[in-house]
Write a structure and sequence with these properties.
The protein is of the alpha/beta class. It has a single domain, classed as 2-enoyl-CoA Hydratase, Chain A, domain 1, CATH 3.90.226.10. Helix content is 47%, strand content 14%. It has 12 helices and 9 strands. The chain has a 6-stranded mixed sheet with strand order 1-2-3-4-6-9. A 3-stranded mixed sheet has the order 5-7-8. A hairpin with a 2-residue loop joins strand 1 and strand 2. Helix 5 packs across helix 6 and helix 6 packs across helix 7.
């Protein structure tokens, strides 16, 4: 199962569970998360999004699947719709980031109200390197959180923020040791739940009144990019390089630092 759900008091733990794919967001996982979010609206809860595997958050979308998506898929807004649904959860949400949050993983964290992380957390938006754009919210959520200059560097150059840099930039609200990160997330949920659920719900609505978004443009732009041969070439090259690295590790060769270029993510 790609998503594991557990209730701990006022916290609803939503655990990403695709460790062999570094929690890449394929369409089946997106559908499962939509179902979880729909069910979570039945009673007040603080949503805590995390990974069931230490040292991982989410590497973005599954590139092998993304490679085959066309303009019609882009206009369906597969991944952007998920991030909007996370943001629309009636009560506060928390992302517990213990490892890379890259591409769509970063956008998933951005869709949450609060983010806490371990020293292993890192964030990046490498989409343009794969011939697409960060169409699931990073084009507007990222500048809101870290400011336009840093957002430009992350989107234009693929700059990676480690945990300390993310904390300084405001992308992470708090840093904790990895072995207690989930417990700290639950404690934060309990602190939030000590307030009025109705007041929290109305506060979320108030904070969204002037919510800017480029989602409509992003969908159209992504549809154009999904039909561009450059996207196909870049993603096939990415998959070939990833396969080469895996074979190199299997043969006992040098790791070269592992998969630092993650599966990317767009609106689908």
């Amino acid at each position: 199962m790609s998503v594991v759900v557990e209730r701990r008091g006022p916290a609803l733990l939503v655990g990403l569970a695709r460790p062999t794919k570094r929690n890449a967001l394929d369409e089946a996982t997106v559908d499962r998360l939509h179902a979880v979010l729909q069910d979570a609206r039945r009673s007040p809860c603080v949503l805590v999004v995390h990974s069931t595997t230490p040292g991982i958050f989410a590497a973005g979308a599954d590139i092998a699947e993304l490679l085959e998506r066309d303009a019609d898929d882009a206009l369906r807004g597969i991944n952007s719709g998920l991030m909007d649904a996370v943001e629309a959860h009636p009560w506060p949400t928390v992302a517990a980031v213990d490892g890379p949050a890259l591409g769509g993983g970063c956008e998933l964290a951005l869709a949450c109200d609060l983010r806490i992380g371990s020293e292993r957390a890192s964030f990046a938006q490498p989409e343009p390197g794969l011939g697409i754009l960060a169409g699931a919210g990073a084009n507007w959520r990222l500048p809101q959180v870290v400011g336009l200059p840093l957002a430009r560097r992350m989107l234009y150059t693929g700059e990676v923020l480690d945990a300390d840099a993310a904390h300084r930039a405001g992308l992470l609200d708090h840093l904790h040791a990895g072995d207690v990160l989930l417990e700290e997330a639950v404690a934060l949920a309990e602190r939030i739940a000590g307030r009025s659920w109705r007041a929290l719900e109305l506060t979320k609505l108030a904070l969204r009144v002037h919510r800017p978004a480029t989602t409509g443009f992003d969908l159209l732009a992504q549809a154009v990019l999904f039909e561009d041969p450059d996207k196909q070439e870049r993603m096939r090259a990415f998959l070939a390089e990833r396969g080469r690295r895996r074979q190199e590790r299997a043969d006992g060769g040098s790791d070269r630092g592992g998969e630092v270029s993650p599966p990317d993510e767009g609106p689908g």
